[in-house]
Amino acid sequence: MNKNPVVELRNVTFAYDRKIILDEANLKVYPSDFFSIVGPNGSGKSTLIKIMLGLLKPQKGEALLFGQDTNCFNQWHRLGYLSQKATAFNPTFPGTVREIVGIHAGIKNGLTRRMTGQDWEKVDAAIERVGLSHQRNSLVGKLSGGQQQRVFLARILVNQPEILLLDEPLVGIDAEAQESLQHLLEDLHNSQKLTIIMVTHDIAYASQTATRLVCIHHQRIFEHNPLDYSKSALQERGLTQLYHFH
Amino acid sequence: MDIFQYEFMQRALAAGIVIGIICPLAGIFLVLRRLSLLGDALSHISLTGVAAGLVCSINATLSALVFALAGSLGIEYLRRHYTQYAELAIALAMSGGMGLAVVLISLGKGNTATVLSFLFGSIVAVTPVDLYIIFAVGLLVCVSVMLLYRPLFYISFDEEGAKLAGIPINKVNVYFMLLTAVTIAVSMRIVGALLVSSLMTIPAAISLQLANSFKAAVSISVAAGLISVIAGLILSFYLSLAPGGTIILFSLLLLFLTIGCKKATRSFTLQGPSAGATG
Lengths: 246, 279
Prior knowledge:
Chain A is α/β, with parallel strands linked by helices.
């Protein structure tokens, strides 16, 4: 492959106290990849995404973003991160959808900069992109879990990032909201060629949508063909229970 | 009005207006970050500064400022040390500040009246020098919050997201802590060390009942603070009451009225205007 990786881990070892989570892990994510990370609970999926972002520092090895070590990386506007705990915010926080998306708009141009008309246009476009225009003046805490996830997605989309890093974005929302969010992510990947890195438990969705799929198991990262994780393939291998297929 | 004939009252009202703006302005961010008790800890430390100022014969407001600034840095250091028990830093600062204040007060014999005026607030205590300091601090706090509005809003809502947006959260947190410290140190003159944190939290509590946006929350909070301080000062003058206590009681009255009106409006909306009618 002649493209340069946008995210790279080189011989990364990470441990919480003495418990090793990743051991000499290597990984490369290329532009336009839809990169799914699966694995059992506690295997280190969220840890992996936090190492990629530089939120956790590995004890050994290095994590690179756009070829730059995360320790000196400063082009954060090129990334959009949706945390697993995004919707665990204070539900009584008095912020409207427009305000919450607006705090992120154009922040790369200066922390003390006032919002311009152009910034607000981008905010409204991002809110429209996630289908929440009719709720833009509602308080975020009053929305459903699925709608809140869309607000946080709009917030990271407002600065037109090149990579989306999503930590279990489908958890805690109803089936309808899950499906609608899945379609939105697919559309973002297909139409804008966004690189998407997503931690998920939904192996069926990952196998259908991801262009690349890795599984973390016993401190190692294994890459698989997404099709090997389709329901029929897992049934063949008697692994449906492990991945909660019904 | 009689009240404006007195120079001390003019100074108290001028200072009160500034305090009525800056206390809720800092307070709304503290409340949203669940750091309401920080105001209490810093006011106890500021009281230590007052006592130290009296012992060393220097301007008590200035020494309170210095102690509050040092105390805020200490609390921020402890907060980072005990990330999972951030409230522990506040408890440690509160008890340490009060202990030192009591010892220093006992050393500064004969100045009990001055200490009491800082403890409970006093209208006559605001000197022209204090007024200049209060105006300077007021300007600093207002300009800082205006400039750092977006980072402060972002950190209050989502600290991790703010960090990934490239906001230097540690620097912003330290600066905001320093702003809170100076706000408390100068507000003690009128409201009193024991009550100053209430002027930061009660207006914020009122705004949380009414606000339908973050901008509205900040505006309502400042409006509630201003109304409470002005009404409290006027009432305390005519009724010969302690200003700090009157201001806080008035703001509490506003809070209960807000909660009551909100409840009444909600039940009226739920039942409809004709509910309860017999015919």
